[in-house]
Specification:
There is one protein chain. This protein is of the alpha+beta class. It has two domains: 59 residues; 84 residues, Cupredoxins -  blue copper proteins (Immunoglobulin-like). It is built from four helices and seven strands; from the N terminus they run H-E-H-E-E-H-E-E-E-E-H. The strands form two sheets. The protein has a four-stranded antiparallel sheet with strand order 4-3-6-7. Helix 1 runs antiparallel to helix 4. It starts with a helix and ends in a 6-residue tail after the last helix.
Length: 173
Amino acid sequence: MESRLAIRAIMAAVAVAAVIVVSCGVVSAVSRHKVGGPLGWTPGINFTEWASDKHIYAGDWLYFVFDKNAHDVLEVNETGYEACSGQGFITNITRGGRDVYQLNETKTYYFICGKGYCWQGMKLAVNVLELPPPAPAPSSSGSSGSANLLCWRSRIGVALVVLVSWVFGAINL
């Protein structure tokens, strides 16, 4: 019976701690975007249209899926993008046809297929945005410091739950 209580106390403390961490904005999400959607990096897709409704942030990844025997992925500058030229490319992303590329800076990145398919629309310009700050925790007073105070109070609450569980023998530290 005591072991069940100990497990329940530990699970409750972990659940409360997870909620607090997420609500206090400690966790930030990075996304992986499959370029071209279900069809991937292939001719016949309007990559400008594909990118138009995406919110891509610094730290996100682009995932290129393609036939490596027929296509490649080159990062180029704007001039290379406009001219569909891979000459003087910045990075050859091609490794195996299931390739990822992390977007580390807030800028516009340019990608083309350097095997002639750029002229058939296999080119992508991606505007990478700065990750927005986490939304503040809701507060009743509306002051900016109250959200931070709420996080600290919550952390103290978790510490008290663990301490009480330990005192009553549910957790052996």
